[in-house]
Amino acid sequence: MKLKIGITCYPTVGGSGVIATELGKLLAEKGHDIHFITSSMPFRLNRMYHNIFFHQVEANQYSVFQYPPYDIALASKMAEITKREKLDVLHVHYAIPHAVCAILAKQMSGENVKIVTTLHGTDITVLGYDPSLKGAIRFGIEKSDAVTAVSKSLVDQTYELIQPNKSIHTVYNFIDERVYKSVESSHLKEEYGIQDHEKVIIHVSNFRNVKRVPDVVKAFHEISRHIPAKLLLVGDGPEMTIVCKLVSELNIEKQVIFLGKQDNLEELYSISDLMLLLSEKESFGLVALEAMACGVPCIATKVGGIPEVVEEGVNGYLCPLGDIETVATRAIELLTDPKRHQQFSLQSIQTVRKKFHSEQIVSKYERLYYELLQKE
Ligand code: GMT
């Protein structure tokens, strides 16, 4: 049976927006009608699909309000689309505000639409510590018809922090294997001034404090004292000024290439030898999965859901948070041992194929929708 599915996420750059959009695209390819109900067009929605629709939520600024009423505008739009399009499912990404808005929309529409909420991390591991929001997060989770989280670690953390009376299923993230694979992009090396004998280390993030980009720069500094290497820093965000200052203090400006926000990341991964992801919190680490799918092993911190993606000594290495020395030692070991590097690279690709295959994950969501609809 073909379903009508509404999807709400934060559509701008960020792992949760990426997953929501990719899920919508793959569900559309399976024949379902997808209605994105978001504040702007999801950024990865890069081609026409006859069965993907976009309904823009506009939160206007009125002089009587201190803040634009996004949540109410979203709930109203969700209710309108649910009723008009006879949606079967509203799949929202983030407990607050999106699950709470969906619950309100269901009541407003009077329709028996099923609410599926996916937790991505920030809503739990950051906002969950705010006592003023905890009740709303719990409400959003408990009143959803089904709740998923992107790693086992996030499921555990949700129970620990929020204590909801609700079962939460782990549904891992995925990538589109047709996009994330090793591609021929060696011309980029020459264009970026990377010599053949230099190793390429990559970091991709939104440069928030939680990503610990200064640790990446410090580890790279140590690595580059032993082997010729270049660091690709991809993304932008609040920590950028601090990171630039550190690069200049360490006198490694010539070895660090700042690329800002980029699309077509597979081309950058394809010229990279190693990814560093040294975050303080990470419910999953989608960029690690993207890099691994292109055959790039990852050295990452042993936090949150990362150990469910990066397996110590199998496809990468895990290091304690802030332990820059161990990161550098492991990186040097891996980058100077071609045999082990090749083995980790193959294992990275295998892990993505076996554990995080898009077909397997999308079918899991699909089964969940059908199960809920059968419960009537
Ligand atoms: O932290 C980010 O980079 C953004 C954030 C988001 O909400 O988009 O990412 C979270 O969701 C991603 C997709 O599920 C996960 O891969 C990230 O690990 C997670 N970030 C955190 O837990 C800090």
From TrEMBL:
User: Which InterPro entries does its entry note?
Assistant: Glyco_trans_1 (IPR001296), Glyco_trans_4-like_N (IPR028098), Glycosyltransferase_grp1 (IPR050194), Thiol_BshA (IPR023881)
- What Gene Ontology molecular function terms does this protein carry? glycosyltransferase activity
Question: For the Glycosyltransferase subfamily 4-like N-terminal domain, which residue ranges apply?
Answer: 13-177
Pfam families assigned to the protein according to its UniProt record, in alphabetical order: Glyco_transf_4, Glycos_transf_1
GO annotation (BP), single:
bacillithiol biosynthetic process
Q: Where is the Glycosyl transferase family domain?
A: 188-345
* Classification via SUPFAM superfamilies: UDP-Glycosyltransferase/glycogen phosphorylase
The record ties this protein, via Gene3D superfamilies, to:
Glycogen Phosphorylase B
The protein depicted here goes by the name N-acetyl-alpha-D-glucosaminyl L-malate synthase BshA
The organism encoding this protein is Oikeobacillus pervagus
Organism classification: Bacteria, Bacillati, Bacillota, Bacilli, Bacillales
